[in-house]
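User: My advisor asked me to double-check a structure prediction for YceD family protein before group meeting. I don't want to rely on an old file, so could you generate it fresh from this sequence?
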Amino acid sequence: MSERSKTTNRTPTGPWIIDTRDLGRRPGSSRGYHRKFEATSDFGIVEVLGIPSGAEVEFDVLLESVVEGVLATGTVSGPTVGECSRCLDPLSGEVEVRITELFAYPDSATEASTDEDEVSRLVDDLLDLEPVARDTIVLTLPAAPLCAPDCPGLCVECGEKLADLGPDHRHETIDPRWAALQGRFGEAGNNSEEN
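Assistant: Sure, here is a fresh prediction for YceD family protein from the sequence you gave:
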């Protein structure tokens, strides 16, 4: 047996993989699963907001055997980190999402009548919850997270936090048409006043 065929025939393992053989294929059979483990990769864009690699993720799901496959329902949760999209302060919190996904049996009517990316599939009686959890978490997290709904952000002139600068903070602005003249004659005007 070649080295390549050895690696492709291995059964996938990991905390997200669930073997459904214990569940059986009789419609109405169900079984619960609860797991806590470290995320092996980021969920979301951690620089914006997401669950970082190494954080403890938890899922609590119920698998139910139905005519066309296995229905997975439950929750996935974990800690989030990121930064405010206005003031760039670090953010941290928790996310909990509800998942509901049908994993179609091979050769079922659902498997035969849907595209590969429309419905999840059981492969060798195994289901992988990670893609479902990842997609649900990413779609739940805000694209532009805020530290507070009324965060004023940063000053566009100096880059300092507006919340720290106070209401009287302002920058003197010069009409760009006169800026070159002020640079030239402003110095000359100052010199003539000194004389």
